Amino acid sequence: MATEIRQASSPWMYRRTLRLFLNYVVAIAIGIVMIFPLLWMFSGALKTKEMLLEETVINLIPPLPWQWHNFIDAWTALAFTRFLFNTLVITVASIFGGLLSASMVAFGFARLRFVGRNFLFFIVLGTMMVPMQVTAIPTFLLFHRLGWLNTYLPLIVPMWMGGGAFYIFLLRQYIMTIPTELDDAAKIDGCSPIGIYRHVILPNIGPALAAASIFLFLHSWNDLWGPLIYLTDDNTWTLARGMLTFKRTLAEFRHGGGLRQYQIHWFLSLGTMTMLPVLFIYLVLQRHFVSGVVTSGLKG
């Protein structure tokens, strides 16, 4: 009997092992494709321009000596400090405002009872289907009339108005996984809706807030569309806006005889410096990020 069970389970175990093996192979292949450009960028940042231009086979291990001065040269050429400060101000303000406003709106949709709640929520979700290009002109005219051009306000204030439908949806789904018995207990203790939001909901949605903060950080840190439209004064430029100009002008210089050459090693150094904060924040918040995204999808 035991022999028959073993023989019957053997094909099943073989198929299961083969399936797992193929899954891992596909996952590793996708991972290599995704990480290869980053490795090439990190490697190129430590090479000279001549090495990069003469390289016929991609070498991910830069030869010695490593060109650490590329980072200093690129930092100075781009005025990296000023652009970094502008980007940090916009990013921090956007994250704080986005988390605060999106969590409050999500709390209202998840916990408060009012007529038309689901209908309004569907309208909010529907705004995700509207391309930003459709509203670009009226939004620009509005900010122009308000006198907000060449200021941080066009990039910060919209994030304080709910942060965006995706963040509201993400936090609302997570809030719905929290037992309503906690709300009832807080009401018995005399908590108002604001008190429930502050003392019950916020302390229990940390993973979702971490996930939303990463998305908000990426949105503000990498944003080129907004700065390209609203910021024409180089004193207000962000890293993304500054790097675009660097690519067009500062990365090129004239040698004798009028030859124009591209400073690709500087540009790779700038890309590396811009990428490191994103990578660091993701690694620090990775556990909360995965937990928040997964749990938010458990309740419909």
UniProtKB/TrEMBL annotation:
Membrane topology: Multi-pass membrane protein
Annotated coiled-coil segments of the chain: none
Name listed for the protein in its UniProt record: Carbohydrate ABC transporter permease
Keyword Transferase recorded: no
Any single GO BP term: transmembrane transport
Keyword terms: Cell membrane, Membrane, Transmembrane, Transmembrane helix, Transport
InterPro entries membership: MetI-like, MetI-like_sf
Pfam families for this protein: BPD_transp_1 (PF00528)
Domain ABC transmembrane type-1: 84-285
Provenance organism: Caldilineaceae bacterium SB0664_bin_27
Compartments in which it is found: Cell membrane
TM helices/strands, residue ranges: 21-42, 83-107, 119-143, 155-175, 196-218, 264-285
GO cellular component: plasma membrane
Family: Belongs to the binding-protein-dependent transport system permease family.
